[in-house]
Design goal:
By secondary structure, the chain is α/β, with parallel strands linked by helices. The protein has helices spanning 12-21, 38-42, 53-62, 78-90, 125-138, 161-166, 184-196, 214-225, 242-247, 257-261, 272-283; strands spanning 4-8, 27-32, 47-50, 65-68, 96-102, 113-114, 145-150, 152-154, 171-173, 181-183, 203-206, 232-234, 253-254. It has a domain at 4-155 and 182-207 and 254-268: 3-Layer(aba) Sandwich (Rossmann fold). It contains 11 helices and 13 strands. The protein has a 7-stranded parallel β-sheet with strand order 3-2-1-4-5-7-11, with helices on both faces. A two-stranded parallel ribbon has the order 6-13. It has a two-stranded parallel ribbon with strand order 8-10.
């Protein structure tokens, strides 16, 4: 029987998973709020539908697996708001449900390590909304739910090279600041591994092995390009949007031990150096 993935909010990470599943004969149905995006989604091999109730509810009836990627708002999780009752009605039939969350749910740990057992103490509004969304998904009775807490995502089209080339990249220095990251290809393989080895109720951190200061990543990108390293700017003096500044409210090192031990994942890009080198090689 053909496996069918319903991708709610089919974006960058979800497309990475679709790229693995489609060659295996999967059917992937992906949603978008924007009618003008449906053709471009179809060009990637998925079946695109609008993110509206009748279409999504009908697709859910055909799905064996569900991936939810859409970000929550102050009104809650958009997928649950739309088809929460339908998900509950189909819970016993679904084989796997994944929810893409963020490592922002852990809040600030002043550079310390966190794993999936750490308390959820978000320091930002975005993190608080994700904690609420995780709880709402867990509250759907009988759902075979798996939560994936993603670190900072990069990959094709989402790397520092364009800004470095344009001269707009900045090396903002905040003492003790570190971030964890993950390449989109590693997100895809973690999701695929979970589908192959479901463990309803589990949460997984998805990140590489090398949490690092953000200025180090910019410096490495500049060195790879053979361009001048952008000058250092103290955090206190940096002109930043409130959104950008909020990312610096949290500093932590995120453990990925569970995806390795439980799912058998071997990271394609275990650190940002290899990830950036591969991105640049793909451009060339």
């Amino acid at each position: 029987m053909t496996k069918t993935l319903l991708s709610l909010g089919h974006g960058y990470s979800a497309q990475g998973l679709a790229t693995l599943l489609l060659p295996q004969g999967w059917r992937v149905i992906g949603t978008s709020r924007k009618p003008e995006k449906l053709d471009s989604l179809a060009a990637t091999g998925i079946e695109p539908i609008l993110f509206e109730r009748s279409s999504v509810a009908k697709a859910l009836e055909q799905a064996s697996h569900v991936l939810a990627s859409a970000a929550p708002s102050h009104d809650g999780d958009p997928a649950l708001n739309m088809i929460g009752d339908d998900l509950a009605n189909h819970a016993s039939r679904l084989e796997w449900v994944g929810y893409l969350s963020t490592t922002g749910v852990y809040g600030d740990h002043q550079g310390g390590w966190v794993d999936e057992g750490a308390a959820l103490t978000p320091a930002t509004r975005r993190g608080r909304l994700r904690v609420e969304a995780e709880a709402a998904w867990r509250a759907v009775d009988g759902l075979p739910l798996h939560i994936f807490r993603l670190a900072g995502i990069y990959g094709p089209g989402r790397g520092p090279f364009a800004k470095v080339r344009a001269g707009t990249a900045r090396r903002i220095i905040k003492d003790g600041q570190v971030f964890s990251r993950t390449h989109v290809d590693d997100i895809a393989q973690v999701l695929a591994a979970s589908i192959d080895h479901p463990n309803p109720g589990a949460a997984y951190n998805v990140c590489d092995d090398d949490p690092a200061p953000p200025q180090d990543v910019i410096e490495h990108a500049a060195n790879l390009l053979g361009l001048p390293v952008p000058p250092a700017i103290p955090f206190e003096q940096a002109d930043m949007t409130p959104m950008a500044r909020s990312f610096y409210a949290e500093s932590k090192r995120v453990s990925n031990t569970r995806i390795k031990e439980e799912l058998g994942v071997e990271l394609i890009y275990p650190d940002y150096r290899r990830g950036l080198e591969a991105l640049l090689a793909a451009e060339d």
